[in-house]
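Notes on consecutive records. When two proteins share a document, each keeps its own sequence and its own token line. Never mix them. Below: protein one.
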Amino acid sequence: MLERNYKQIAPENLDYVKKKLIEVFHDENTLVRNAAINSMTALFVKLGFQNWPELFQFLANNLNVDNAELVKVSLECITKILEDLENDSENVNYFEEKNNSPLTELIPKLISMCNPDYPVSIREYALKSLNIFTSMMPPSFILHMNSYFQVLFISASDQQHPLIRQLSCEGFVGVLEKRKDLITANLENVLETILKLTTDANSDVKKEACLFWNEFLIVEEGEPEDRLETLRSILG
């Protein structure tokens, strides 16, 4: 109903729905929380930052509480929202124009939550969100690209959690597409890292690593055509 008919819903009813969704966000029942997340995402994407800015602030504030489950659920909701906003640059740019917006402040927090000291469920959603930021590339994210890039190397070396390694591969592919200069400046380390992931014991990690090689061998106009020789030297 929110996705199809939200324009026909009276403002006072929308306000009531917003209030109730935030209230049930803390529900002990997983199914209830998941339903709240899906409804929040659907409504937020329709309303936009300008009509529901307090939601993102609410989610950002939750990342600072001493409750791992609430942090994980909040990260999951943030990830879902970012996924839906990925192709909606107008919405993202609106919030980027606001000083000290929750979106701007969120990025360094997500980077810190990729630290191996955090539970893997939290690291997973933090890294997923950062990878989506790579695709959208808002101005506030560009300022943190070097820190994010180091997170990818750390995540790639996580031997306990294949999903984290897989997400690191996804991140390297995104950086190659959006910030090739970072890859070029750290080429040897990147290629050696991806090579190890290509021979990973986990099939999903290997598949994601192979996507990097496909992208790496594409030479755009004006670029040196020595990619294959570079790859041969690494493989040798």
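Protein two starts on the next line and is unrelated to protein one.
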Amino acid sequence: MGYKLKPNKAVAKRFKVTAKGKLKRHHTLTSHLRSSRSAKKKRELRRPEITFEGIARNMRVLMGVSKSPGRLKHRAEKRAAKAAAAAAAAGSQK
């Protein structure tokens, strides 16, 4: 019997995977003592950040998302288009 993949749930809760497989994360320094920060800094901290790819690669492995979903979707669409073209070609020969 094979090994069942157990993704690291702590990592999965901290990162979200985008359609192209990149990882979004939240900023630090946002929970308390915000009065000392400028309004500009607080606005910047509100927005999510894309994780650096070198670190994101490791996090994807921990999450069990080793392949980019965007790439997989693209391949599936290509396969479907190829099958439709082959069916159309077979239909026109009859």
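For the record: The CA atoms of residues 49 and 82 lie 37 Å apart.
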